[in-house]
Write a structure and sequence with these properties.
Layout: H1 9-12, H2 23-47, H3 52-88, H4 90-101
Amino acid sequence: MNRPTQANRYQQNTVKPRFSFKGIHIARLLVMFLLLLNIALVYTIVFSSKGLPGYKKQNQQVKELEEKVLKFRVENQKLFEMIKSLKNSPKAQEKLVRQELGWVGENEIILESGGKQHDGGEKAAGPIKPFSLPRGIE
């Protein structure tokens, strides 16, 4: 028996949606969104101050600071060796006192030339005898 199929009353008034997205359209929209996001990120990395230019600037600063640290280490080592020699050697102590404070021995004569200028330091305020004759010559 062939019965005629009756349409359900709910099927007769079907409402079609305004926007009908199929799977391919959603995938295309997602790819477009991700592509735009990647372009924005690459632009930010290349042209931002926190991107490549900032990295290069900070890298240069690090190199300069490493050079300064190396110079200070060399200077520190020299000063350490100077302190060590001053602690152990009376000759080094005497040399430093003569150079820095301008001290002279009892039987020594100071000869100063007018052409030599000081390095900007002050003259020593110690017991300097401007001129002394050796013993026996008076």
